[in-house]
Batch of 3 targets.
Target 1
Amino acid sequence: MWPKEDIPDNASLFMRIHKRFILAGDVGPHAFRDHARGMSVDWDKYSTPQETRNRARIASDNAVISLVAGAVRAIEPLVVEHAPIQDNSFEEGGNPLKPNRAHSEVIGEKTTEVRVKLSRTWRWQLRLGEQ
């Protein structure tokens, strides 16, 4: 079992972006949304951009961006929490989840203003089609 750890402000958070959220080569505010408890990201201490992409159902349909944890925390009311997915974990619908030590959550309401601020803080790690 992996313990929850404190993510430092200078850490990078990798996030998959499905191709439907990439318009004219850019990621807009609409891509920053919650899935269940929060917005799912991977901590760079335990993942690479490629590993983050490979966790998608169809990896080639996804790009990967990075956000700096401290920049995310600077946006009210967002909180960044390490939330590793342990062995024998299940999603709300009962489907099994693959273990992921890097898994983290950006928790807090994603209002339009918050999404716009997030859309100004990211950097490309892997664009669509990049290996």
Target 2
Amino acid sequence: MKYLGIDYGTKRVGVAVSDDDGRVAFPLTSLMGGADAVREVVALAGSRGAEAIVLGESRNFKGEPNPVMENIEQFKTDVAELSGLPVHYEPEFMTSAQATREGETKDLDASAAALILQGYLDRIHNHGPNQH
């Protein structure tokens, strides 16, 4: 099963894609945030043959939703409705900082999306999709 991974931001949206088996995530691109981002993500999902989308869930150190979560929830709803694909949350925590540490500064947002997607893929292959 092929997946698209998303690191949502109000300014930029990082996108990653998995291999056909849904085992390895690769940075794909960064899109400008805003009204067109939903349509662009849905178009990428279609052109890449994604069967599901994984979206980073932003929470603070206490596990409470960050202020951006309201936008992320709306983005999730819009992508799911327009694409007809399931959209899953994967906790994201410091993925941009981790991508920077790993030297991925050229396309930081896409690299952060790949970290989010890889976390989801590792979890479902090790524990099943409903395990945290």
Target 3
Amino acid sequence: MASPTPSTEYKVLIASANPLFRKGLEKMVLGRYGESTVLRATTATHETLDVMESWQPNLVIVDYDDKSISRAEFLQQFVTGDLPMQVMLVSLQASGAVVVYDRRTLTPAQAQDWLSSPQFPPNPPHSDIQPARRKSSMKHYVFAGVLVLILTILVDMLLSVSRLLPVQASLQAQPIDRLFDIEIIAISFLFSLIVVFIFYSMVVFRRRKGQEEDGAYFKSNNPLEVIWTIIPLGAVIGLSYFGAITLGQTRQAEPAPVEIKVVAGQWFWRFEYPEYGIVSDKMYMPVDKQAKLTLTSLDVIHSFWVPEFRVKQDLLPGENLVRELRITPTLIGEYKVRCAEMCGTSHAYMESPVIVVSQADFDAWVQGELAAIGTDPVARGERWAKNNGCQSCHSVDGTPNVGPTWQGLFGKTVELMDGTTAVVDETYLLNAITNPNMQVQVGATANVMPQTYKDSISAEQISDIIAFIKSLQ
């Protein structure tokens, strides 16, 4: 059957006694062929046959389920012959699906696509028009795909030069940054894929002036759903594989590392070097040499994090919950260790310096720390108090803090929360350090003082701290 030109009148006959069926098909046909379409409707078999013979429509759509239309008579006289018109029998099943019966090569899926996709001039739904339609659709996919590729490259370049990550300062940071690079590319692609298709559809497939009908749509597409399931699944498995490799690289042990014990408390960091007997509130590390960190907490969960090193590890309270972390610094400089776990009111201020130096400077620092211990108990007590985080809660100049100030504390009579009073002497201070909840001053916060100082600080160091407090008169 020859296709009419755009100026040709296209005649469509709808045979159905169901007014909703007719109305729905009329709207669909007008949306496909526009104002050049001439519609007629019939409600009985004989009427339909007469109109078909006299009017010679281009397309006849018959309600397959309508009892007033004799399907057998209709098929016998018209469908089996060589008609100069397209005949389509449409059945609205109870499930809501539309099934099309046609004596030609049209399948139900093809007919559904043909009826719901506006196109002018009208062409009969034969297989010879399908390649052109696929070619037209492919043009949009290719053009949108090129735009997605271009935008992905631009977004990735923008994110790369924006320095989302701090300077890379450890050997462990290198594989982690490679994994970040893969994730940034994936983020750029997904962003571009969504944005391009949204704006491309808004521009190319927007509703034009005068168009009132709904656009074409489909309810399901099994191949698309399968592909869209397999691709994300493959991406997740791939990232998991690279993540496992990266985790193994960050945990790789080197011989003879520097041993550092990291102790966290509310709200301080303490760094112990068992090999040298040094305790410090600053973490010194030699460059290009691996440090083995054993981490523990005195009270609540804290988290050790130096952003330039990338790696992070939680510190848990308890002797049997010691964690391990290996870091090989590669860049000399000063950084900060931060607590990355909400741990209380002063969480935001819980940070300490991390200083990476050459091996020679590290050895000099060790010798200086050993020499600074000295023989003066007051000087040693000040050092132990600073390294153990005591001054994060107790001031030495009278400034109010979480705990009572140490200035003028020794020898003072204080009121306790149980209603009694006590004189601050050596015995009182010893109990306050080793059993802090035994005698709590009025105005102090109970259950904040760590309960572990009796085990983590030696008796000599506690004696030195008491001597330092006595000196603050």
